[in-house]
């Protein structure tokens, strides 16, 4: 008879126990980014909803921003750093492919041997990380999981590209996911559509770049992020309503139960369309951190969550729909209870 393998079971319920963020110091106006792309403050505001964003300095790296956000999350969760036994870093801008950013971040936080790894699901990365973290705790694989969404998109965006330069920005947000008496993270609805893999992509891989160097020498152009803006807009505006409705449904709720909707801060117009088609109740707050933060990809949802709580527009215990989408194309959504913050 085959040996019987033991399996673990963990907490019945999970929740976001704490939240922390890091916003780079330098605030960048539309006028500053408009110059190289022959655009204007007015065009950028109307097409994207962005008024300002933050760009990281050389000292504000994927590691330093992650550590700062994570410290805030650990403090606000009130857990001991030793109780966090897994770190998931969602990012598409950690430009060193090996090793992953997670282990060094865990060590810099003072963790002793925690599991640590990176995941890449574009702008949907944070909600993918949240899904993994919740299931790890429920399965008994981990006690508490640190999920970080972090991006330094100024390292990958071409300041002269009209379709991306005004949109993307830098920052980090982190949460602690752990056991809870009540359900605080609903079932995740997620998926992908690889037929649209070209819609948001690195425009060439490193081997292609090296070949270009051989051919063109100093005229070779480094890889940059490329986006087919109209295709992404159409997909997001028309495909994500069902994802949102399924996530609300699977949480056993209706839109009337939502106190807040915190969509990925992709573009103000996409956010408004999603809220309109869902017919959110009047008292449901819609996150609009894109105005001051721009599109920070995997970092945008925890940053927008912090903004709502800091501004007092949402409060701990509120029920919020999270929906993230982006490169892949990939998406993930779940309903959560907002954490006790600070
Ligand atoms: C990028 C985006 C704002 C461009 O808006 P758009 O209306 O699709 O723009 P188009 O490319 O069709 O161009 C429309 C006009 O604006 C102009 N334009 C394009 N980019 C411009 C810029 N940065 N500044 C000024 N004008 C610009 C074009 O030249 C064109 O002018 P024309 O009508 O005189 O020919 C829009 O497609 C978008 O928001 N897409 C979604 C992107 C997104 O959310 N990505 C993140 C997903 S994670």
From TrEMBL:
Domain Beta-ketoacyl-[acyl-carrier-protein] synthase III N-terminal: 117-194
Record's catalysed reaction(s): malonyl-[ACP] + acetyl-CoA + H(+) = 3-oxobutanoyl-[ACP] + CO2 + CoA
Signal peptide range: none
Keywords tagged on the record: Acyltransferase, Cytoplasm, Fatty acid biosynthesis, Fatty acid metabolism, Lipid biosynthesis, Lipid metabolism, Multifunctional enzyme, Transferase
SUPFAM superfamilies xrefs: Thiolase-like
PANTHER family: 3-OXOACYL-[ACYL-CARRIER-PROTEIN] SYNTHASE 3, BETA-KETOACYL-[ACYL-CARRIER-PROTEIN] SYNTHASE III
UniProt-recorded name of the protein: Beta-ketoacyl-[acyl-carrier-protein] synthase III
Name of the coding gene: fabH
